[in-house]
Amino acid sequence: MKKRILTWIAGCFITAVSFAATTPSAEGASYFVDDQQIETLFENSQDISLSAAAEVMNMTQGSNAVAMNNAQFASGDKNFVAAILLNFFLGGLGIHRLYLGTKTMTWIGYILTCGGIFGIVPFVDLIVLIINNQDISPYVGNPKFFMWGGGNM
Q1: Cβ atoms within 10 A of the Cβ of 94, count?
Q2: Whether residue 83 has pLDDT greater than 70
Q3: Which position has the higher pLDDT, 70 or 101?
Q4: Which of 1, 24, 69, 102 has a CB 3.0–4.6 Å from the CB of 28, allowing a cystine?
């Protein structure tokens, strides 16, 4: 009985403190948003397409930097550490397979099988990635549900 009363008192105290912390102060009351100025800003703005943004980037950074970024993305170089971290933290969702370039249905299969057969498949994926850390290219773009199975090694 004493524990329930103490728990109730502690809960009331925490609730009172949290409400006191969320009340607006005098400093916060002086803040003012001019809606008319914001509307004017939006009316005078221009929508641009992605290609127009790329052209602006191309002009400001130079064509070599953009071409180098596109070449690196197109080459399919995947970072071993990023794959391991994604597998460790988000392996049950198959996000590491998405990063490695697997087709959409494979990582959706991870989700539909409760984290890759209840977490077994991502765990084995993690071990395989750690063991084969020098060359993860067989796993990049691998369409199989079990990325370690078969003749890709």
Answers
A1: 28
A2: yes
A3: 101
A4: 24
- Tokens 């502690």 belong to 10
- Which two three-digit tokens encode residue 64? 């070599």
Given a contact cutoff of 8 angstroms between Cβ atoms, the answer to whether 145 and 109 are in contact is yes
In the structure encoding, which two tokens stand for residue 84, read together?
């391991």
| Per-residue DSSP letter, 100 | T
Q: Quick check: 141 and 101 in contact, CB under 8 A?
A: yes
Could you count the other beta carbons within 10 Å of the beta carbon of residue 126? 17
pLDDT above 60 for 74: no
Q: Which two tokens stand for residue 34?
A: 């001019």
Which range of 10-14, 76-80, 88-92 scores highest in mean pLDDT? It is: 88-92
Q: Where do the H-state alpha helices sit in the chain? A: 2-22, 26-29, 35-44, 50-61, 63-75, 80-90, 95-99, 104-112, 120-131
Average pLDDT, the chain: 75
